[in-house]
């Protein structure tokens, strides 16, 4: 009987671990479209949308790979706090409120639209810093 209990417990733990995994949802879930310099960068990209207090973080799944992370404060006034673009359209750059670039956000029905400029560089000329327009439309 002890062996059966151990086997049943192992199966239960494996099922619970599988149920808690963080694999990206199928398309149609939370996704985002991104433009750099007015051009599509592909996608839609699967994203996570996490709310902590008044702060929303919208990001692609792999923080090290091609993608983005955006932080939006949603209080009385909705403002973009930061955007990091990683190798999207060959561009890697950053917006930081009151520091680098400019950005604004609008929201309607669970969709956030962020537009602005980020400071960074293109892969074909990584030593030249440029301010480049970007757009993110994320459905959370």
Describe what this molecule looks like in 3D.
This protein has one domain (25-139). 13% of the residues lie in helices and 58% in strands. It has an eight-stranded antiparallel beta barrel with strand order 1-3-4-5-6-7-9-10. Mean pLDDT is 83; it is low at 1-28. It has one helix at residues 2-19; strands at 31-36, 39-40, 45-52, 55-60, 67-74, 78-88, 91-96, 102-108, 111-122, 125-139. It is mainly beta and 140 residues long. Strand 6 and strand 7 form a beta hairpin.
- From the spread of the alpha carbons, the general shape counts as globular
Strand arrangement across the biggest beta sheet: 1-3-4-5-6-7-9-10
Helical segment tally? 1
Query: Which structural category fits the helices and strands?
Result: mainly beta
- Determine the strand fraction and express it as a percent band: over 45%
Quantity of strands, as a count? 10
As residue ranges, the low-confidence spans are 1-28
- What profile does the largest beta sheet have? 8 strands, antiparallel, barrel
Element order: H for helix, E for strand: HEEEEEEEEEE
What integer value in Å does the Rg equal?
19 Å
Number of domains: 1
Helix amount, in percent?
10-25%
Calculate the terminal CA-CA distance, rounded to whole Å: 48 Å
The residue-averaged pLDDT reads 83
InterPro entries: LpqH (IPR008691)
Protein name: Lipoprotein antigen
Keywords: Cell membrane, Lipoprotein, Membrane, Palmitate, Signal
Organism: Mycolicibacterium hassiacum (strain DSM 44199 / CIP 105218 / JCM 12690 / 3849)
């Amino acid at each position: 009987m002890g062996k059966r209990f151990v086997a049943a417990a192992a199966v239960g733990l494996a099922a619970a671990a599988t149920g808690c995994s963080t694999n990206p949802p199928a398309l149609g879930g939370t996704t985002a479209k991104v433009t750099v310099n007015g051009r599509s960068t592909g996608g839609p990209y699967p994203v996570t949308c996490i709310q902590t207090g008044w702060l929303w973080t919208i990001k692609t799944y792999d923080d090290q790979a091609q993608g983005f992370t955006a932080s939006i404060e949603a209080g009385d006034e909705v403002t973009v706090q930061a955007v990091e673009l990683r190798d999207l359209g060959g561009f890697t750059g950053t917006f930081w409120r009151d520091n680098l670039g400019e950005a604004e956000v609008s929201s309607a029905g669970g969709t956030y639209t962020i537009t602005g400029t980020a400071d960074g560089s293109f892969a074909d000329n990584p030593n030249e810093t440029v301010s480049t327009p970007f757009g993110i439309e994320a459905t959370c």
